[in-house]
Amino acid sequence: MDDDLEKTAALPAGDADGESEKKLEGARDDNIAAPPGINPMDPSQFPEGGLEAWTVVFGSACGIYVSFGWINCIGVFQDYYQSHQLKEYTSQEIAWIPSLEAFMMFIGGLWVGRVYDNYGPRVLLLVGTFLHVFGLMMASISHKYYQFLLSQGVCSAFGASMIFYPSMSCVVTYFFRRRSLALGIAATGSSIGGVIFPVMVEKLIPQVGFGWTMRICAFMVLVLMVMGNLTLKSRIPPMAKPVRAMDFVKPFLEGDFALLALGSFLTFLGLFLPFTFIILAAQERGVPDGLAKYLVAVLNAGSTFGRTIPPFLADRLGRFTVFLAMGLLSCVIVLALWLPSSGTAATIVFCLVFGFSSGAVASILPSLVATISHISQIGVRTGCNFSVVAVAVLIGSPIGGQLIQNDGYKSMQGFSGALLGGGLIVFTVLWVRLGGLTGKRV
What we know:
MFS_trans_sf; Growth Hormone, Chain: A; MFS_dom; transmembrane transporter activity; 19 helices; transport; mainly alpha; Major facilitator superfamily (MFS) profile domain-containing protein; 74% helix
């Protein structure tokens, strides 16, 4: 796994009826280019399928595979660096590398979204592909702490950001009623990448060394992004508009968006901790090293189903409703299983269930932004929300590392569960504001 999805053009999934169409008609943005007499943001104009639309979904999956999928394997590098190149550093210090990596990918949405709205996805995808591949190539020859920070934490991650946001936003322009499903299918690229990349790294390093392992990963990114660059496009023609600082402030002045941003911050502050520390926590609980190194892949394998089944249900039962259910499951499984348990079986069960629920949370979130936004603001508003997520993932792992250093793994696990619970409360308040208690499908 934007930032930007959509004064009423992406109303709640259950509201895609005559009432929605009237609201959408009133929300017409005159800056959007379209054939005479046709409003491309009208629900009736969304293809909802067809060869072109599903080809875009395929390209999106490729882009998300190499961006969010790569970020999903950060736990592998936390473990590897702590045992090899950076073994003289503490886990808290090393945690800044994956944290900065995730931060740079998410924070890029602030300006990537605006560029996407103004000029479309093409230049972003091309430059992003170059930076992502170049950063991984530079990481392959890095030996010092600052070199890993710059190559993997900044350059590669910034390129991933320029790939990730257009990949998500292009899909949104082709689907209205089936948006959560389409985004969920595209987001499986994240899960597949999160399974394949960790296994590749663990298998290749003993055979060809760290340097060539990173280069092989970079070549995989390049091949997939050739396909992504050929297939990704937006149905909504771009229209250049002047960049104003208030464009990035205005969403946070809206009550619904402010609640969504706060909920996203708390949720992702807790959500990424298992991905970062699952290997180290498992080893501390007695899980054999040979198995522990593949737990990130197990997490992402579980998320494959979480990124498809819940989004499919979200389009029918309500996006916020399904999101809340998956958020509750994430919170409960952390506090009730990961925190108190030990041993191999419990750890694997946790990875599969948490992978499922966290995958659903991550894949449905962009459609929540769409639900309370106008499609002409896809880039900016998704970017604004994910900039908040960026701060959360930046500080989350170092805080978790400090908690581990001071009080052990249980304190970090309790911290993760408490944050997920706090995010759940905020999203519940937003669900009520949108009419969830009235029986409305939200």
